[in-house]
Design a protein that fits this description.
The complex is a heterodimer. In chain A, strands 1-4-5-9-8-7-6 form a 7-stranded mixed sheet, sandwiched between helices. In chain A, strands 2-3 form a two-stranded antiparallel ribbon. Chain A is an alpha+beta fold. Helix content of chain A is 42%, strand content 20%. Chain B folds into 6 domains: 66 residues, 2-Layer Sandwich (Phenylalanyl-tRNA Synthetase, Chain B, domain 1); 114 residues, Nucleic acid-binding proteins (OB fold (Dihydrolipoamide Acetyltransferase, E2P)); 197 residues, Phenylalanyl-tRNA Synthetase, Chain B, domain 3, CATH 3.50.40; 70 residues, 2-Layer Sandwich (Phenylalanyl-tRNA Synthetase, Chain B, domain 1), CATH 3.30.56; 205 residues, BirA Bifunctional Protein, domain 2, CATH 3.30.930; 88 residues, Alpha-Beta Plaits, CATH 3.30.70. Helices cover 25% and strands 28% of the residues of chain B. In chain B, the strands form 10 sheets. Chain B has a 7-stranded mixed sheet, sandwiched between helices. In chain B, strands 3, 4, 5, 6, 7 and 10 form a 6-stranded antiparallel sheet that branches. In chain B, strands 12-15-18-19-20 form a 5-stranded mixed sheet. The longest helix of chain B has 19 residues. Classes of the chains: A alpha+beta, B alpha+beta. Chains A and B meet through helix 5, strand 1, strand 2, strand 4 and strand 5 of A and helix 8, helix 11, helix 13, helix 14 and strand 27 of B.
């Protein structure tokens, strides 16, 4: 019996060694270990053994069964693994085919930069103010210390509708309206973004319609140095923390002293930085304060204004202002990043 | 203002400073230098030569062979083709080795077999601007004055070694429309002295008052009017140095008299006018023009005058437009002998009005508009008279004939040092402030502790308040020396208003949903205001008074046509797949003839055309349709927490069967938007394929919008879903079915939606089958089948009753 078991084990292991697939394996398992299998058949003869032999043969039989089991399950795992591999191989896709993207739209680059600036100023405690685009001569000019027939009106050639109504040439009338509404209250801290219009022949750098972002602060002890600090912070947030600004004396009828602001700027591919004019500003002219109900002896303020087109052209390297108004899909699409 | 540095150096020492350095310093102190023009365009080794002989070239008709003394020791033989060359002339000679502009090197040459040792030059060969040359020098070689020294470098004779700084002046700095003003500015910046030209005028002959009288009717428009009488002038060219300076300033030399008036205007900033005294007559007047009067100005144009214009008259006949331009009839000509020289002050606003009305701007009007220095009137008159006696051989008669109303003296302003430092955020000492005023040539004196009385020179009419003085101190002190500080005082909270937040939410929803944001022009063509009139009906389009073109002549009344034009622009560039929107202002006037501001509304417009997605593996592209547009509108409203009703409608401009009007829930009478497919006729007009557009008035959404999120507890008990399909007439709207379901299903109904609509063989041809999914739920317990069945029964009964619906099994 011992020999038959040993022989069975050797035979089974030999058979298993050459098994080719899961089906054959199952057949062999049944052949040796099934209810009618060879091992069962041998074990059925256990009844004729002596009491001494029985446990010894029993143990041997268990060993034979375990050995066959182990071999079967090893093969079975192999076949399963191979089967999985085959299936996965058959499911292979071409990952280089294009994906299906989420729809992506773009905020217009002008509104994008306006919003960026709004966020910076909201962070500094400013409100955003708005007003009409068709303005009265009073709000657009006179209340800003630009009386009729003043030569400084030549600085802004206007689109008139009637003698008294015109397309606003700057967003400063929003400042005037805000001051009037505030009725002497301080502090005033606003920025005024919006469309403005000036008679200009359109070319790569001029547009009769453009966007301005102006700011106004009125309070006690507002200093020109505060203006400089505010603009430095703005430009560093917009163009990077190593950005520098410089102020040059200039003239606006509604501010005194007045300044133009240049920002340090490195052109694409250029080695060194140069200065580029981006902004006009100054201390609010006492006439303007008086006309809008603030006593210049008690209060002072600063104001600044910049063109969104110019800033966007600088920031994104756009070379023609007309792109902003053509709404070419290929242009807009480039601003789809959040 | 073009400022010759050579000329400037006569009034202020600029030695040791390059034109570039000077330009930078001036720019940083408040006057931008736009450009530095080098007058020498690359001339080297060209000298003054004397033409001794001229002979015809043996083999060329048009050439001459000249013998020229160019101070080189030996006479040069030079072949010259200019018609005006002649023996006895002084001419510019480019000798062998000389260089002309364009790096053109002069070598020994042979012209038609005759050797030529150099070249006789024209003005343009020397790089001079043709437009600025006197008329007789524009062709042929440049003939120099007889006195020109042989062998002298031509650059010296013509003043070419000069850099001209272009001052881009702001309107307040008209004081720098003069060389003396520029000198004061330069001196202040450099901390150097100003030297003014001496006026040592000698008067001869009888009194000028015997020759002319002056009567001014409008003293307020002409507060100072002065005449000098110069007799016996000889008209001829002005000295070369004067011509050089005029050309450097961009003014073409004419003759000695005109050149002198221009020269003194450039020097002092005071425009002058020389009349031919014999043509003008003895009685000089200043008065307003009368209706119907005309005057032919120097440029040969006949001008129609009106009473708003100020005139200079001779014997009451119009002779000049005060401060704008002289008349042709009294012009100085070659035969002029006696001159009435005018120097005056005219009200800037009057000159400006006249000049604008006539579209006539001159160097004079430019200066008068900005008000001239009251102290310069007589100084300039005397200076010009002096130059006329020197360079035009005239005798300056005794005295000035003038009319003057009211004296203008220097004003004194008080400046407080503490205020100055508080205003600028600086810590400038009194000593420094005084030093700055000394540099500016402003006299000042202490008036109280920390307070200065500053005397403002009359040339600086722009300085009227203490803040103007603060600016003067700041700019000379240097804006770079103002520190950067943070605003002191109470902190404020910044935030968007609700309407601003709504607009941001709308824009964000659409960009995240794949729409590109457009920005179009506010000006459009009139036809575009007669279309898509849903919101403009009953109002008037607002036209511009003087549009730049018909296409941009009126304010837009709707955004839709502008987006259509953008779509057309894109279609022409093969960008056919478009999802775009714009948030912008439209303008609706309330009157036919505009007298008040129009109503401005903020609109949202959407446009869709072509396909929504690219065709890709496993997903076909699909043309957009009404429901893509509607879905976008619904998403926007959902973002704002709003519900709206879409009513079949045919708003102006849209396809009558594929368009709708939009009403907010709870306000069934107020249309807030329109949407649909573009009317096929308009699609043709704008050259577009099927295009869908919407326009919504955002102003109407600000108040009802509820952008805040309100959390509701999650349901704890399961919901039950029941689908039903009903067969109804083709004209029954899904919206009516849904409304009927909502009304009849009772409180347990949570949601109902249409998930299929079928027409075809399995229903009658005039019917459709609509499949609805109903969701029932109770907040506090699980529903029983009976409850749901009862609700379904009610729904079915209602649909049968209201729509003759048949339940489809």
């Amino acid at each position: 019996m011992r020999e038959r078991l040993e022989q069975l084990k050797a035979e089974a292991l030999e058979h298993l060694r050459s098994v080719a697939d899961a089906k054959q394996l199952d057949e062999l398992r049944v052949k040796y270990q099934g209810k009618k299998g060879k091992l069962t058949e041998i074990l059925r003869g256990m009844g004729g053994l002596s009491a001494e032999e029985r446990p010894v043969i029993g143990q041997l039989a268990n060993e034979v069964r375990d050995a066959i089991d182990a071999a079967v399950s090893a093969h079975s795992e192999r076949f399963e693994r191979e089967e999985t591999e085959r299936r996965l191989a058959s499911e292979t896709i071409d990952v280089t085919l294009p994906g299906r993207k989420l729809p992506r739209g773009a905020a217009h680059p002008l509104n994008r930069i306006i919003e960026e600036i709004e966020q910076i100023f909201i962070g500094m405690g400013y409100q955003v103010s708005e007003g009409p685009e068709v303005e009265t001569d009073y709000h657009n000019f006179e209340a800003l210390n630009l009386p009729k027939d003043h030569p400084a009106r030549d600085m802004q050639d206007s689109f008139y509708i009637t003698e008294d109504l015109l397309m606003r040439t700057h967003t400063s009338p929003v400042q005037v309206r805000t001051m009037q509404k505030m009725d002497g209250e301080v502090p005033v801290k606003i920025i005024c973004p919006g469309k403005v219009y000036r008679r200009d022949d359109d070319d790569a750098t001029h547009s009769f319609q453009f966007h301005q972002i102006e700011g106004l602060v009125i309070g006690k002890n507002i200093r020109m140095s505060d203006l400089k600090g505010t603009l430095l912070q703005l430009m560093q947030e917009l163009f990077g923390s190593d950005t520098q600004i410089r102020m040059r004396p200039s003239f606006f009828p509604f501010t005194e002293p007045s300044a133009e602001v240049d920002v340090s700027y490195r052109k694409k591919g250029a080695e060194s930085t140069g200065w580029l004019e981006v902004l006009g500003c100054g201390m609010v002219h006492p006439r303007v304060l008086e006309m809008s109900g603030y006593d210049p002896k008690e209060y002072s303020g600063f104001a600044f204004g910049m063109g969104a087109e110019r800033l966007a052209m600088l920031k994104y390297g756009i070379d023609d202002i007309r792109h902003f108004y053509n709404n070419d899909e290929r242009f807009l699409n480039q601003f789809a990043r959040q | 203002m073009k400022v010759s540095t050579q000329w400037l150096s006569e009034y202020v020492n600029i030695e040791g400073i390059t034109p570039e350095e000077l330009a930078e310093k001036i720019t940083r102190s408040g006057i931008e230098i736009d450009e530095i023009e080098q007058r020498n365009q690359g001339v080297q080794g060209v000298v003054v030569g004397y033409v001794k002989h001229k002979e015809k070239h043996p083999d060329a008709d048009k050439l001459n062979v000249c013998t020229v003394d160019a101070g080189t020791g030996e006479d040069l033989q030079i072949v010259c083709g200019a018609k005006n060359i002649d023996a006895g002339q002084k001419v510019p000679v480019a000798v062998v080795g000389a260089v002309l502009p364009g790096n053109f090197k002069i070598k020994n040459a042979k012209l038609r077999g005759v050797a030529s040792q150099g070249m006789i030059c024209s003005a343009s060969e020397l790089g001079m601007n043709d437009k600025l040359l006197p008329k007789d020098q524009q062709e042929g070689i440049l003939v120099l004055p007889e006195g020109a020294e042989i062998g002298l470098p031509i650059t010296q004779v013509l003043g070419l070694d000069d850099a001209v700084l272009e001052f881009d002046l702001t309107p307040n700095r008209s004081d720098c429309l003069s060389m003396i003003g520029a000198a004061y500015e330069t001196a202040a910046i450099l901390g150097r002295e100003v030297k003014l030209p001496a006026i040592d005028l000698i008067e001869t002959g009888g009194p000028a008052a015997d020759q002319v009288s002056v009567t001014v009717e409008n003293g307020e428009l002409s507060p100072h009017y002065a005449i000098r009488y110069i007799s016996g002038v000889q008209i001829g060219p002005s000295p070369q140095w004067m011509q050089n300076r005029l050309m450097a300033a961009g003014i073409r030399p004419t003759n000695n008299v005109v050149d002198i008036t221009n020269y003194v205007m450039l020097e002092c900033g005071q425009p002058l006018h020389a009349f031919d005294a014999d043509k003008l007559g003895r009685e000089i007047g200043v008065r307003s023009a009368r209706d119907g009067e005309t005057l032919t100005t120097l440029d040969g144009q006949e001008r129609k005058l009106d009473p708003s214009m100020l005139l200079i008259t001779g014997g009451d006949r119009p002779a000049a437009l005060a401060g704008v331009m002289g008349g042709l009839e009294t012009e100085v000509t070659d035969s002029t002998v006696n001159i009435a020289l005018e120097s005056a002050r005219f009200a800037g606003s009057s000159v400006r009005k006249t000049s604008r009305k006539l579209g006539l701007r001159s160097e004079a009007s430019l200066r008068f508009e900005k008000e001239v220095d009251p102290s310069a009137v007589i100084a300039a008159l005397d200076r010009a008279a002096l130059l006329l006696s020197r360079h035009a051989g005239g005798a300056v008669l005794h005295g000035i004939v003038e009319s003057k109303s009211g004296a203008v003296g220097e004003k004194t302003l008080s400046l407080s040092l503490p205020k100055l430092n508080a205003y600028l955020g600086t810590d400038i000492s009194m000593l420094e402030v005084k030093a700055i005023f000394a540099r500016l040539n402003f006299k000042c004196a202490d008036s109280a502790q920390g307070v200065l009385d500053v005397q403002v020179p009359t040339r600086r009419g722009d300085i009227t308040r203490d803040v103007d003085l603060i600016e003067e101190v700041a700019r000379i002190h240097g804006y770079d020396n103002i520190p950067s500080t943070v605003i002191e005082g109470p902190t404020t909270a910044g935030a968007y208003t609700k309407s601003q937040a709504v607009r941001r939410a709308v824009r964000r929803t659409l960009t995240h949903g794949g729409f590109h944001e457009a920005v179009t022009y506010s000006f459009t063509r009139p036809e575009n205001t007669q279309r898509f009139t849903a919101f403009s009906a009953g109002s008037y389009a607002v036209p511009l008074a003087m549009p730049m073109s018909e296409d941009r002549s009126v304010l837009r009344t709707t955004l839709v046509p502008l987006l259509l034009e953008a779509a057309q622009y894109n279609r022409n560039r093969k960008n056919a797949d478009l999802s775009m929107f714009e948030v912008g202002t439209v303008f609706h006037g309330s009157e036919q003839k505009v007298t008040k501001q129009p109503t401005e509304r903020t609109m949202l417009a959407l446009l869709m055309a072509g396909s929504r997605t690219d065709e890709t593996v496993g997903a076909a592209s699909r043309k957009v349709d009404f429901f893509d547009l509607k879905g976008a509108v619904e998403s926007v409203l959902e973002e704002l927490g709003l519900h709206a009703e879409f009513r079949a409608d045919s708003p102006d401009g849209f396809h009558p069967g594929r368009s709708a009007s939009l009403y907010l829930a709870g306000a069934p009478d107020k249309r807030i938007g329109v949407l649909g497919q573009l009317h096929p006729q308009l699609q043709l007009d704008y050259d577009l394929d099927d295009t869908y557009a919407a326009e919504i008035c955002l102003n109407d959404l600000y108040a009802p919008a509820a952008p805040e999120i309100e959390y509701r507890d999650l349901p704890r008990y399961p919901s039950a879903q029941r689908d039903i399909a009903v067969v109804v007439g083709l004209d029954v709207e899904a919206g009516s079915l849904i409304a009927a379901v909502r009304e009849s299903a009772g409180e347990l109904l949570q949601d109902v939606r249409v998930f299929d609509v079928y027409t075809g063989d399995r229903v009658a041809s005039d019917k459709k089958s609509v499949a609805l999914a109903l969701t029932y739920q109770h907040g506090e317990r699980t529903l029983t089948d009976e409850e749901v069945a009862a609700a379904q029964q009610n729904v079915i009964a209602r649909l049968e009753q209201s729509f003759a619906a048949e339940l489809r099994k």
